[in-house]
Amino acid sequence: MGLNVIMMGPPGAGKGTQAARFADGRGVPKISTGDILREMARDGHPTAVDAKARIDSGELVDDATMIEIVRERLMRPDAQRGFVLDGFPRTVAQAEALDRIVDERKQGPLIVVDVAVPEEELVRRLAMRRICVACGVDADPSVVGDRCAKCGGALEQRSDDNEAVVRERLSVYRRSTKPVLEFYRKRPTFRVVNGAQPREQVARELDAMIDDAASVKAESL
Ligand code: AMP
Fold first, then answer.
1. What residues form DSSP beta bridges with 84?
2. CA distance 131 to 147
3. How, if at all, do strands 131-132 and 155-156 pair?
4. Of 81, 91, 106, 201, whose CB count within 10 A is highest?
């Protein structure tokens, strides 16, 4: 049975970093819908070019487009042993569609982890955040140079990481994505990690929580 993980949490919670580390460690792909959209936009893909204004203003791209992107991605061979989703689902409609996709494909239970961080801390982190243009990894805030410690790529601020757009993304999160947590909360495979701790501590707790959730017996799901 594959390890199918959804990394939830507000923008800036560190879920992308944790998702990448976890996926690397377990040999499953990290599927980030934000990365996919940015890559499609760079390649001039019409869907992403149309969506660019929404992405740049912090609004959500429509559900039908996002569900199709994820459906297609989860069909690829590398996702059959499991995956870590980062940035999807962001609406209850997306979460319902994801349940249908994994059911159809008999891809096993979803393990949902909420990386929780207080809002004031998120605004502070996002304003400082820099991302590697080559590998998509967030630079550790202590890195002073402009090169990625992992692959040597250039570090840049994301165009939607300025304070006005950050506030809009947080308000979209409260409005559309928090209800997704309620959608999952009662499942025996739902977990919450305190994302306001140092990265390494969050990573340790996440590993333990995911292994624990993976051991939940199929009968109780
Ligand atoms: P992220 O890198 O996850 O913060 O995503 C960047 C932007 O891409 C978001 O602010 C949205 O405009 C768009 N986006 C990414 N994933 C989704 C999704 N699941 N549903 C709707 N829009 C999304």
1. 5, 30
2. 10
3. antiparallel
4. 91
Domain boundaries defined on the chain? 3-117+176-220
Look up the pTM and report it: 0.86
CA of 218 to the centre of ligand 1 (A): 31
Q: pLDDT tens for residues 63-75? A: 999 999 999 999 9
Q: Classify domain 3-117+176-220 by CATH architecture.
A: 3-Layer(aba) Sandwich (3.40)
Reduced to 3 states (helix: H, G, I; strand: E, B; else coil), residue 138 is strand
Measured CA to CA, the distance from residue 207 to residue 177 in angstroms comes to: 24
Centre of ligand 1 to C-alpha 11, Å, is 10
Give helix 33-42 / helix 63-74 axis angle, nearest 10°. 100
Q: Is 151 helix (H, G, I), strand (E, B) or coil?
A: coil
In the chain, DSSP assigns E strands to 3-8, 30-32, 82-86, 110-116, 131-132, 155-156, 190-194
